[in-house]
Each structure stands twice: as structure tokens, then as C-alpha cells.
Amino acid sequence: MQLADNLEAERGATRVGLTLAQPASTGSAEWDTAIAALCEYRLNADALPVPDWINGRPGNSSAPWSPPSSDYDIPIDIGRVPAEFLAAS
């Protein structure tokens, strides 16, 4: 959540600069892909360039993944999921 908030708070070159270097792996391919999708989403919001590490991320749309939120997961409304996250799943 902090990454999402930090990227939203910045604009232009600063937002791009914060996403230029690929972050270290979390140890989970799913979370790594979700981080890339989040960065892409925030960059696309202002029509900013997207770094190659984000464009080249793996994704598997035939096996969608969503992070568990609690023991009472709420079903996801796919129609409300941003395109960057759909492409990453």
C-alpha cells in the first residue's frame, strides 16, 4: 500500500525515476508481478513512459492470481480491475 501511495503522490519525472530500477524480488513471482503492475498503473495514469523491466514482466492470464486479503475474501469484480493488473495475472 505504501508503494501505491508514494507513486500516486509524485508526478512526472519523479514518478518515472522511482520506477526506473527493478526492485529486488519479494521471493514470490505473483507479488513481483503485482508490484510491476502497480508501477505500470501509476505511470499510465499520467501517460508516463514505462521502464522495460515492467513491460517484460511475466504474466499468466490463464491462471489469474489475486492476493489473499483475509479469511473472508470478497469475490473480485473483474470489470473493476485495471487493465495493467489483468495483463499481469
Structure, explained:
The protein is mainly alpha-helical and about 90 residues long. The chain has one domain. Helix content is about 50%, strand content about 0%. It contains five helices and no strands. The model has no long low-confidence stretch (mean pLDDT about 85).
Which structural traits does this protein have?
89 residues; mainly alpha; 48% helix
Radius of gyration: 13 Å
Q: Give, in order, the helices and strands.
A: HHHHH
Cα shape: globular
How many beta-strand runs?
A: 0
Range of helix content: 40-55%
Number of helical segments? Answer: 5
Biggest beta sheet summary: none
Uncertain runs are none
Number of domains: 1
Q: What average pLDDT do the residues reach?
A: 86
